[in-house]
Structures are given as structure tokens and as C-alpha cells.
């Protein structure tokens, strides 16, 4: 029942956000970002079928019945690995070891991917490693600013142990508002690259949309990011 209530609240909030965004966007003079190929035309007409599907479709196991098996990670365990490695921490959150240093992608550590922690999409399991237990992070890479990819609380906690943040255009503005030093942030347009002491990061086109609230639909860029190091 709690799951259904959370879903209903989330869908209603999404409908309200899109509807109000359309009203506001008529007077907004800044030009939004657009996809290179796929156009998303989200609106009340498309969201209502989604809402009905959430309420009426009989889904098999929409959430795990039993605890999701996890292997706990610590700095000591990570230090035992000398090779390049990839660790999945959650839906979008990836920790990579590359050339002996660590890169963290789309860090989300909060319980819910939502503007509030009392409603919204809830994670199925805790992160296998806490922010406090993470090693020094060479770079945090953000693909776009949706709540399931950009977690304000995580960014605020990570700022002291991250050397650099790399984001698509305009996403870095969120980070500066949350206290990250602007000198630690690099924003990339599609096909732009940055080199961080041997780690090369390139932003490539993503066919998606962005926004965290009522008034910012597609006002930040979405990117897929490619990585290369000295040995990988």
C-alpha cells in the first residue's frame, strides 16, 4: 500500500510539474537544449496513460520481495584490487577504478530519487559502500540533472573528497549552488573533452531530457560520457 501511495504521489507531482512547465515556458526567453535525433513531447496527453498504467496494470514483483544480495565494499577491499574495475552501487551510480584512481559516475546515495525524502522513487537496496568509506575520488561525472542521477545530498558530502567534477553544460550551476568550488567543475558541450592527468573524458550526444523542477525543462544539457586512461 505504501508503494502504491508513493507511486500515485509521484505521478501526480510529475503531471503537475509538466503542466506548469508548459505554462511557464511560454514566457521564458532562454532557449532550451534539444536532442540531435529524438524529440520528447511530454505533456498531459502522454502522462495520463502512464498514470493509468501505474494504477491499473498488474505488474509482477514491481519491487523485490526479499532483500537484494549485496557485497559490502570498504576501502580495504578496494585496495586489494590492482586492476581496472567497475562497481555498480545502484540504479545509475558506478564506481570505476581506472589507472589506479577512482571515478564516480552519477552518485546517488539518498534513499529516494526525489526533491523530498518522504515521497518519490525509493531505492531497492542501500549502497554497498557509504560516502564516508569511499576512497579519494579523482573525478565525479554527471550525465544529466534528473534526481536519479544527481543527488544534492551526495554532492554536498562528496565535495571534500573529490578532486574534480565534470558535467554537461549548465549542470555545473547546480553544484556551485550546493557549495562546490567553481574551480573544481568543468562543463562540456557535446564532443568536447577534458583531460585530467591522464584521464580523458568526452561528452557525446544523449537522446533524453533534463530538469529538476517546474521551470527548468531542458535548460541543462544531457550527455553520454566516454572515458579513457593510459591503460584503458
Automatic annotation (TrEMBL):
InterPro entries: Metallo-B-lactamas, RibonucZ/Hydroxyglut_hydro
Classification via Gene3D superfamilies: Ribonuclease Z/Hydroxyacylglutathione hydrolase-like
Every Metallo-beta-lactamase domain range: 103-222
Name this protein carries in UniProt: MBL fold metallo-hydrolase
Pfam families, A to Z: Lactamase_B_2
Superkingdom as given in the UniProt entry: Bacteria
Amino acid at each position: 500500500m505504501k508503494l502504491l501511495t508513493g507511486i500515485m504521489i509521484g505521478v501526480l507531482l510529475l503531471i503537475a510539474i509538466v503542466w506548469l512547465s508548459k505554462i511557464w515556458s511560454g514566457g521564458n526567453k532562454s532557449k532550451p537544449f534539444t536532442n540531435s535525433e529524438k524529440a520528447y513531447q511530454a505533456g498531459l496527453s502522454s502522462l495520463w496513460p502512464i498514470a493509468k498504467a501505474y494504477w491499473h496494470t498488474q505488474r509482477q514483483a514491481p519491487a523485490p520481495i526479499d532483500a537484494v544480495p549485496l557485497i559490502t565494499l570498504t576501502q580495504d577491499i578496494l585496495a586489494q584490487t590492482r586492476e581496472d574495475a567497475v562497481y555498480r552501487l545502484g540504479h545509475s551510480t558506478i564506481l570505476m577504478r581506472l589507472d589506479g584512481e577512482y571515478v564516480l559516475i552519477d552518485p546517488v546515495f539518498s534513499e529516494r530519487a526525489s526533491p523530498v525524502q518522504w515521497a518519490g522513487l525509493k531505492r531497492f537496496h542501500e549502497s554497498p559502500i557509504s560516502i564516508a568509506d569511499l576512497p579519494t575520488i579523482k573525478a565525479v561525472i554527471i550525465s544529466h540533472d534528473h534526481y536519479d542521477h544527481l543527488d544534492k545530498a551526495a554532492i554536498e558530502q562528496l565535495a571534500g573528497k573529490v578532486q574534480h567534477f565534470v558535467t554537461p553544460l549548465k549542470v555545473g550551476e547546480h553544484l556551485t549552488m550546493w557549495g562546490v568550488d567553481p574551480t573544481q567543475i568543468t562543463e562540456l558541450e557535446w564532443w568536447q573533452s577534458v583531460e585530467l592527468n591522464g584521464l580523458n573524458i568526452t561528452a557525446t550526444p544523449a537522446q533524453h531530457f533534463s530538469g529538476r523542477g517546474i521551470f527548468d525543462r531542458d535548460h541543462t544539457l544531457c550527455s553520454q560520457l566516454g572515458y579513457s586512461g593510459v591503460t584503458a
